Amino acid sequence: MSEPVLVEIIGQVGLLRINRPEVFNALNDEVMNALARRSTVSRMTKRSAAWS
Known about the structure:
1 helix, 23% strand, globular, alpha+beta, two-stranded antiparallel ribbon
């Protein structure tokens, strides 16, 4: 199975995309947890980039 959430960084913008076209990108526990993990990592990356 592929990643349920894809992350793309464009400049200072982080894009989180739900990657479940077979179920019309419906949310489930796996996707919600992945979104939470990815958004935390994105915020941490942004903070560390701002300090460098």
